[in-house]
Amino acid sequence: MVRIKFREKTHPMPTHHEPSQRLSITCFFIAGVFAIGLLHVPASAQLPSSAQKELIDSLENKIKIEKNDTVKVRLHFQIANKLRTADTTNAWRHQREITRLAEEKKNDYFRGESYALAATLQLANHPQEGIGNFEKAIRIYSKYPENRRANLSSATAYVNLGLLHYQNNDYQTAIENYLRAEDVYLREDPRNSDLGILYSNLSVAYGTINKYEEGLAFSKKGLDFARRGKDKASRMGALYAYGGNLVTAKKGDGGLVFLDSAKIMATELNNLYYMYGSDFMKAMYYYNTKQYDQAIRYYTECLNFAKKYNSTPDIGNNFLNISACEAELKKPRLAAAHLDSSAKYLDYSIRTVSKQMYFENYAEVYKQLGNFTKAFAYKDSVGAIKDSLYQADNIKQLEFRQARYNYEKRQNEIEQLEAGKRLQEASIKQKNMINYVLIGGTGALLLILVLSYRTYRQKQKLQLQRISELEVEKKLAATEAVLKGEEQERTRLAKDLHDGLGGMLSGIKYGLNTMKGNQIMTPENAQAFERSMDMLDSSIREMRRVAHNMMPEALVKFGLDTALRDYCNDIHQSGALQINYQSFGLENASIDQTAAITIYRVIQELVTNIVKHAGARSAIVQVTKNEGAVSVTVEDDGKGFDTAILRRSTGIGWTNIQHRVEFLKGKLDVNSQAGKGTSVLIELTV
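The line above is the sequence of histidine kinase; the predicted structure tokens follow.
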């Protein structure tokens, strides 16, 4: 069973500030958290190369001729590993083959491999199920204490469990799982390369909860481990991690030597991440030791580096850091100017750590300028932001734990029902044997046995019905998770487009206008310049339209009725379709946001279908809100179609409509005839 390791997205480790420090500065230890398993991979790695396809074909051929079941299981696991993102359906097929072999051979170890593989395939979209399957695999592996392969598989599962708990802010549980994995590696394979990655994860986790001594100790272990190997990249990362931990633990200037070494290796390997991070950590060191001029020097280098590679958040944070240093040097006006510059790159409309620091630094600036009214106003806002961030962190932990509890509860209920079913099946066999023996008995006894059997059958049907209901609930829960995940991703992408790309395009426009004012151009060049500016304006409007379609602001701010009215008006004004929107009882109705988004997406998909396929001139969208129910009617005067087509349809749009209606426990009715248009009636429970 092959495990693939790779670098997961970075997680910041917050540094500790003494209470006596007045100013805040974005001093984050940019340390990587690594996965020893099969978690998220970049989009560029999701399609197999031709060489990988040849390897997979070779492994498939080996399975066909392999006689040893253990080797077969390993081959299935290896292929599924390689297909986990490129071909999920085929990957699951190999997982089912392992499950089949486990059942056919009554092999508990194979069953553990099946659970472990299922967990890796579920982590991206169903993390709760993935955690449950990892835990099942570990319980099975524990039955084979002398099996080295089973023990190392347990270690891999522990690391992935730790990473998932870390990502959900459950840091203590993450550390506990990491330490269990360390015990296994030290016992079974102390030279395993995954151990070095594990030490990095432990140093980050301890640093996150401000236990810097423990984090420093594990980063030192990671450095010692990397030095024994030959991989330059591993040594570079270990040098950076150890130097960064020395800085965050405030162990003098010893960390600078390791950071310089890491930067030299990063320059050789052209690793931008560590080149930037080393200078950033040095700037942080000089700030913490009150050498503010030196800190400004390195933060300025980081700022120029971020500008070179158009990293908007890093540009904003470095402006924020420079302003803090200038405030410490009693240069409030320069500090204020850099704070204003940071606001051009960071979104201060949402509550983040950067916004907290922005307010704290402006409070100090106004204090130095003698404007105590504004200083106190900014200081008062800091407390509210801190409380909001703390509450958001707690809510995330509670949601994660509640989801774990609900999943475990459902699993226990299913296991209990299945155990009861097995006992009942055994009881049926026993009663049947008795019936065969006493078949020549008296009629009265036969009648009693028949009645008993019928009673039992009724109970069995009730049990099966309950299992079916639980399966339906599980399917609805999975659908809800998918819909929420889809809307969260749409929201994130919309924000990234609007705040990131939109800000960059606006900045480009501002820069070009500034250049125009300082340049003398011929009339031809001036005309070409204006055409370019018009094209840039069109690009900004198109980007904002796309962001609005992905997550309409009106839906979040003003509710479903306003969002639908705006959407229909936009379609109408575009000339694509004459659309009339009507609503009854919806203006002041209170509808859960998830339900509102779902209704909006259904109507959006139906209108899109009319525009694309119906050939209609006009349409009506009518939404009625009654007690606990919403009725949606969408009609058009298009060419119509045979509704029997829908039963065979595999289109994504129609499938999405059905899933959303099912999620809201609604009913869907479509009436259409050729040449007479189409009418869709949806009744939803909200």
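Note on the example: Residues 443-517 form the longest helix (75 residues). Residues 24 and 269 are 34 Å apart (CA to CA).
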